[in-house]
Specification:
- It is found in: Cell outer membrane.
- It is a single chain.
- The protein contains ten helices and 50 strands.
- It is mainly beta.
- The strands form nine sheets. It has a 22-stranded antiparallel beta barrel. Strands 13, 14, 15, 18, 19 and 20 form a six-stranded antiparallel sheet that branches.
- The longest helix is centred in the C-terminal third of the chain and has 9 residues, at 603-611.
- The protein is globular and about 95 Å long.
Length: 889
């Protein structure tokens, strides 16, 4: 092999560069590193990387996640990282408006490049926190069949995969056709099958006396007197009983989604000459998912959605109402059965292009990409509000008034075909359940059209002085259009269904852009300048929605000797709000949050709660299961985000220690006018503690003082700052002719994560915090280490993933121990895995155990699972065994 360094194009630059000489902090993950973990999806693997935050969407998102897995970087959100396939944009999921990692077959991945720095100046919007470039296998002239299976130590969540590829060269290797296919299935984990999650707790762990288990939405119902506030339940035989009975909803819920994915791809190219190579690639995937939750909880309607009352009121003269007053009803409709969500997603990314040499070192790449996603979201056993009222013989006194009371009128059931008159104090008969039940189907469709022209020359000129290097120039243009439509079921749009109401989302945008990059090697191979290179990039973008914007980036890369290199970057970024953020209709969700007025003792909070209509906050109790109805949605008045990023660090590759490479990098992100929503807990806390009384306008309460809803639509918040230090270490040691030891480590130290939730307001510091009672986490330390020993055809790899302990934060302040007991911290966690491999002729055998210590995720009172499934997703299944066999031909 010649001594000349291999030159490649790595994400972060449009110009070729020698390995390990880029100024941009880029992490490269190989296919072998992914497969040795036993990961079924790319998302499963990415959760190991310290730079990937907990705000990503994962397979543990069983309440509205829809089987979609999306990755973020630095905890800045899935909407601020750009995912590319072979350097070009790809179709987004029309439900989550992010790139679904489940749509990429892991066996087709050749490598992944992660730019841990802003990239808007080269790749356009969305590349605020960085870029993930997934490189697929192409240009194959061999074949392979791989089969994999796995199961947890609990005997559930089976995993299976079969994949194959075959490539053919033709016309003396001028052309190539490669085909790839994969089928993957992954079973779900039921919540009742994990001891740590069987009995769900919600409450303030700084004061354990406030802790509650289960939900007040029970099959027996919870009935509250509108005048006295007294609490009752039914015996399900038609009688009213004093007191309430909580319900353990974990029995019917899933912790992880069931997944199936089928993928097909075709790749072809033909080299006519060095000026013209025609290429094309088509990637298609069909994903389905299924998850289950406890039966539908029923309380009423959202005030602004439809003509139905926000509360179901049982009048004082209703048969069986012995309370002597009107009652508000909360009830779990187990007669309908558990809620089941099934999704189907079809994603297509098709690319055609031509590339070659223009003249004297100038090269071009012209491509057109079309991407589309069709998404179907089916929900079963959601229930119909008007049909349930008919079944109970209830009629609003003022139809169309959200605060309307109700009267008993059994004739409304007599007039409705199929209606069976029933009592809220008794279980529904099968016939009554069939009449009042409802299933919904929603559909989404997104499209991407991207015309891309890239021109570059790595050696335009040589610097006109001694030891001067090359000047490289890259330029290009891009015209991109994105459209999205999401149409909920008519029952969801009208508020008829008793699940979260939604409206239609429809919109799009187009942008025309041009970019220019110049890279100059000022000095090379001279005293204290083995390499001194500067790089500058700029991009001009013209949007039909917001007008024009410019972004830029500059970097310096200095190697005084071949053993050490210093590098730094500084640049700007831009992100226009997505279609969902701009045009998304309002929808209802249930955020885990605690009402500050419940049991309030602070004079300020007591006074503000009394102003809100609560006569005795000290004795007031929050209804529900610690969840607050929260309305979210798009905002057409949103403005773009602006960001600034800088990094600086050093890379050490000492000649006296062959095989060693290590780097240290400091990074800093600043995102202003960040698009987001205020946490429900933040709104409630800051409204009633007097910090921001203006937030009280976002809180609506019903006549009995209970929170009916909180409004938290998207808006331009203040500034988000985050910074930290990365340390990467790789060492390959040749022990003997047969033995090689490889050590790899990736460490992140989070120095700062702070947010200005209100423009111009104070900064809240979330470093080493986990948002309580449900949100992202920002551990100060994260680490992923692997040690691999190769002995001839045999290999063994040990992997350890460390997540530092975090302190609970209610989005306003860190929680404190009140009386010296209770839990307000989550401990550090280490996941340990092991993988063994054996190669004989054309056969490869690999197997392993993930979470070999069978550690459970740590306790966290999230109100749904007893842990934070986003941060600790890999611990959720428990110990997992897997085996893979592949045959090359």
């Amino acid at each position: 092999m010649s001594g000349k360094a291999e030159e490649v194009v790595v994400v972060g630059s449009a110009l070729s560069t020698a390995n390990n000489t880029s100024a941009n902090p880029v992490q490269i993950v190989t296919a072998k590193q992914i497969q040795q973990t036993g990961a079924t999806t790319l998302s499963d693997f990415f959760q190991r990387l310290p730079s990937v935050g907990s705000s990503s969407q994962q397979n543990t998102d069983t309440n509205g996640g829809g089987g979609v897995s999306c990755t973020d970087l630095r905890n800045l959100g899935t909407n601020r990282v750009l995912v590319l396939i072979d350097g070009k944009r790809a179709a987004l999921n029309s439900s989550s408006n992010c790139f679904d990692m489940n749509s990429i077959p892991v066996q087709q991945v050749a490598s992944v490049e992660i730019l841990k720095d802003g990239g808007s100046e080269l790749y356009g919007a969305d590349a605020v926190s960085g870029v993930i470039n997934i490189k697929l296998r192409h240009d194959l002239d061999t074949g392979n069949i791989t089969v994999r299976g796995g199961i947890t130590g609990h005997g559930d969540a089976p995993q299976g995969m079969i994949s194959g590829f075959k490539g053919w060269n033709f016309d003396h290797s001028k052309g190539n056709i490669s085909l790839f296919g994969q089928y993957m299935t992954q079973g779900g984990v039921r919540q009742r099958n994990r001891s740590w999650s069987r009995n769900v707790q919600i409450g303030d762990d700084a004061d354990p006396s406030n802790n509650r288990f289960g939900s007040s939405y029970s099959p027996y119902g919870s009935f509250y007197g509108l005048d006295s506030g007294a609490a009752y339940r039914s015996d399900n035989q038609g009688n009213l009983v004093a007191g309430t009975k909580r319900f353990n909803f974990a029995h019917d819920s899933f912790l992880t989604n069931q997944l199936q994915d089928s993928s097909l791809s075709g790749d072809a190219h033909y080299d006519f000459n060095d000026h013209f190579t025609l290429y094309s690639n088509v990637l298609y995937s069909h994903n389905t998912s299924m998850t289950q939750m406890a039966a539908e909880p029923v309380a009423g309607a959202v005030p602004q959605n439809g003509p139905y009352p926000t509360a179901i009121t049982i009048p004082a003269d209703y048969p069986g109402n012995t309370a002597g007053e009107d009652l508000q009803m909360l009830r779990r409709m187990t007669e309908w059965g558990p809620r089941e969500t099934q999704t189907a997603s079809d994603t297509l990314t098709a690319k055609v292009g031509a590339q070659g040499r223009i003249y004297a070192g100038w090269k071009y790449d012209l491509s057109y990409t079309y991407g589309a996603n069709m998404y179907k979201y089916q929900q079963s056993n959601m229930g119909s509000y008007p049909a349930l009222l008919n079944t109970y013989g209830l009629q609003p006194t003022a139809f169309g008034d959200p605060n309307s009371g109700m009267i008993y009128n059994p004739s409304v059931c007599d007039a409705a075909a199929g209606c069976v008159l029933s009592s809220p104090f008794a279980s529904l008969s099968p016939a009554a359940a069939r009449y009042s039940n409802l299933n919904t189907t929603s559909n989404g469709h997104s499209q991407l059209r991207d015309l891309n022209l890239r021109i570059h020359n790595d050696h335009v000129a040589t610097m006109p002085w001694a030891h001067g290097g090359d000047l490289g120039i890259a330029l290009g243009m891009e015209h991109r259009g994105e459209q999205l439509t999401y149409v909920p079921d008519p029952a969801l749009q009208s508020g008829v269904a008793l699940t979260n109401p939604q409206g239609v989302t429809s919109g799009g945008f187009n942008v025309t852009e041009g970019y220019l990059e110049g890279k100059a090697t000022l000095l090379r191979d001279t005293f204290l300048a083995k390499d001194l290179t500067i790089d500058a990039q700029g991009r001009y973008s013209s949007y039909n929605t917001f007008g024009s914007v410019e972004n830029w980036k500059a970097s310096i890369n200095w190697a005084p000797t071949r053993d050490i290199r210093f590098r730094g970057t500084i640049g700007t970024s831009f992100r226009q709000p997505s279609v969902y953020e701009l045009f998304g209709a309002q929808s209802l969700g249930y955020a885990t949050a605690l009402d500050p007025c419940a049991g309030a003792s602070s004079p300020t909070i007591v006074a503000n709660c009394m102003k809100a209509g609560i006569a005795s906050p000290g004795s007031f109790q929050q209804q529900g299961s610690g969840q607050v109805a929260t309305v979210s949605g798009g905002n057409a008045k949103l403005q773009p985000e602006a960001g600034r990023t800088y990094t600086f660090g050093t890379v050490l590759t000492p000649r006296w220690i062959p095989g060693l490479s290590t780097s240290v990098e400091f990074w800093h992100y600043n995102v202003s006018s960040s698009v987001g929503t205020l946490a429900t807990n933040y709104i409630l806390n800051n409204c009633y503690n007097g910090t921001n009384p203006g937030l009280c306008s976002l809180v609506n309460r019903s006549a009995n003082g209970q929170i009916s809803q909180v409004s938290a639509v998207l808006q331009n918040l203040g500034t988000t700052n985050t910074s930290g230090i990365d340390w990467d270490f790789d060492y390959r040691i040749r022990l003997t002719r047969m033995d090689t030891l490889t050590i790899s480590n990736s460490l992140q130290n989070l120095v700062n994560y702070s947010q200005q939730l209100v423009p111009g307001g104070q900064y809240y510091h979330y470093t080493n915090a986990i948002y309580y009672p449900g949100g992202t986490s920002n551990p100060r330390w994260r680490d992923y280490a692997t040690v691999s020993w190769q002995h001839g055809p045999f290999s063994i790899t040990y992997m350890a993933n460390y997540t530092g302990g975090v302190h609970w934060n209610d989005s306003s302040s860190f929680m404190q121990l009140s009386d010296g007991y209770g839990r307000v911290k989550t401990p550090a966690m280490v996941q340990q895995d092991i993988a063994l491999g054996y190669h004989v002729e054309s056969w490869n055998f690999t197997g392993g155990v993930n979470n070999i210590a069978n550690k459970n995720p740590p306790f966290f009172a999230d109100g749904g699972t007893n842990t934070d499934t986003s941060t600790y997703s890999s611990f959720v299944p428990g110990r997992n065994f897997w085996l893979q066999i592949s045959k090359d031909f």
